[in-house]
Amino acid sequence: MTFGDFVREKRLKEGVNLRALAKELDIAPAYMSDIEKNHRYPPDKEKIYKIAEVLKLSEDEKNQMFDLAGEARVGTIAPDISDYVTSQNAARVALRKARDLNFGEKEWMKVIDILEKGTKIR
């Protein structure tokens, strides 16, 4: 699924017409249409947050939408976490270490489990 497909699906499910969504985002309806047709890249992160708000997305749906926005631009990450990753030296070091150790889903799920439990890493 692409970012545009996701937004279109959720917009229709919520019963929001394209013009109304474009107005909420302060963009032209034609531009919104191009985004949904995957003819343009996803908008900036503030507008993506606004899309999530207007379409009443759950936290998981919002995260999925941000991931799709990151995938739309080859070589980028989800815009909701890019500032965090670039501002935290330790996060970049951890990601590189995970890459060097060839972390897969199994290893990352263990890290996520530690984070969700709120376990203090010392």
Structural class category: mainly alpha
Percent of residues in helical segments?
A: over 70%
Order of helices and strands: HHHHHHHH
**How many helical elements?**
8
Q: Give the percentage of residues in beta strands.
A: under 5%
Please tell me the overall pLDDT.
Answer: 93
Radius of gyration: 17 Å
Shape: elongated
Biggest β-sheet strands, sense, barrel = none
Question: Can you count the beta strands?
Answer: 0
The separation of the N and C termini measures: 39 Å
Q: Which regions have little confidence, pLDDT < 50, spanning 5+ residues?
A: none
Short précis:
With 122 residues, this protein is mostly helical. It has helices at residues 3-14, 18-25, 29-36, 45-54, 59-72, 79-87, 89-100, 105-117.
Description:
The chain is mostly helical and 122 residues long. The chain starts with a helix and ends in a 5-residue tail after the last helix.
Characteristic key phrases:
122 residues, mainly alpha, elongated
Write the layout of secondary structure elements.
Elements: H1 3-14, H2 18-25, H3 29-36, H4 45-54, H5 59-72, H6 79-87, H7 89-100, H8 105-117
Helix pairs in contact: 2-3, 4-5
